[in-house]
Design goal:
By secondary structure, the chain is of the alpha+beta class. It has one domain: 2-Layer Sandwich (Alpha-Beta Plaits). About 30% of the residues lie in helices and about 25% in strands. The protein contains 5 helices and 10 strands; from the N terminus they run βαβββαβββαββααβ. Strands 1, 2, 3, 4, 5 and 10 form a 6-stranded antiparallel sheet that branches. Helix 1 runs antiparallel to helix 2. The two termini are about 20 Å apart. Bound molecules: adenosine-5'-triphosphate and 2-amino-6-hydroxymethyl-7,8-dihydro-3H-pteridin-4-one. Adenosine-5'-triphosphate binds next to strand 5 and strand 7.
């Protein structure tokens, strides 16, 4: 079985519809509430994001399969990349944060096309806060427990700027 933790975000178009379609496609085990988050990364001239964390399990999917699925979902949402704006607005962003293999061991990958665990996750409150909300024991391999990471002063300040809005997924979807 592979277990994947996704961070999904949207700040263009119908943010909630883009996220809902992506959640449905990964057949989730757990989905956080939606958080409204200020743009992270320095490109501030863009709308706020809706961010969620999603956990999925599939015995037949490898980390590469999850990456390919995420990229297909981004394309389906009409995502266009602007090379001038690496942290610019997007209809849908699907990032793999951490993947665990059959034995519960973290998958590590260093290739540019797939870096695992996600190399910036420990700096992003919009990733860690929703993840912690659906898994109190969450651990970012190599960085420690999410619970502890969130005690860092600058992350804690960013975390206070997130606004938890409402659930986006419920049992009746399953
Ligand atoms: N863990 C990962 N999850 C998703 N994409 C990844 C991952 N590691 C590497 N990539 C690669 O990153 C490339 C750029 O992805 P994208 O344009 O979505 O980046 P971004 O979301 O803007 O930035 P960031 O990766 O900092 O969140 C993709 O082509 C993908 O192959
Ligand atoms: N709040 C927020 N900021 C971001 C996000 C995101 O999902 N949420 N994604 C980015 C590129 O991965 C860059 N900045």
């Amino acid at each position: 079985m592979t277990r994947v933790v996704f961070s999904m975000g949207s700040n263009l178009g119908d943010r909630e519809a883009a996220l809902t379609a992506a959640i449905a496609a990964v057949d989730p085990e757990a989905v956080s509430d939606v958080y409204e988050t200020p743009p992270w990364g320095g490109d501030d001239e863009q709308p706020t994001y809706y961010n969620i964390a999603v956990i999925a399990n599939d015995p037949n999917r490898t980390a590469d399969d999850w990456l390919a699925l995420g990229q297909r979902l981004e394309a389906d949402a009409g995502r266009v990349r602007d090379p001038e704006r690496p942290y610019g607005p997007r209809t849908l962003d699907v990032d793999l944060i951490a993947v665990t293999d059959d034995d519960g061991a973290p998958v590590h990958s260093d290739e540019p096309r797939l870096q695992l665990p996600h190399p910036l996750a420990h700096l992003r409150a919009f990733v860690l806060v929703p993840w912690f909300a659906i898994d109190r024991d969450a651990e970012l391999p190599g960085k420690g427990r999410v619970r502890d990471l969130l005690r860092d002063e600058s992350l804690a300040a960013d975390a206070r700027a997130l606004r938890r809005l409402h659930p986006i997924w419920s049992e009746h979807h399953e």
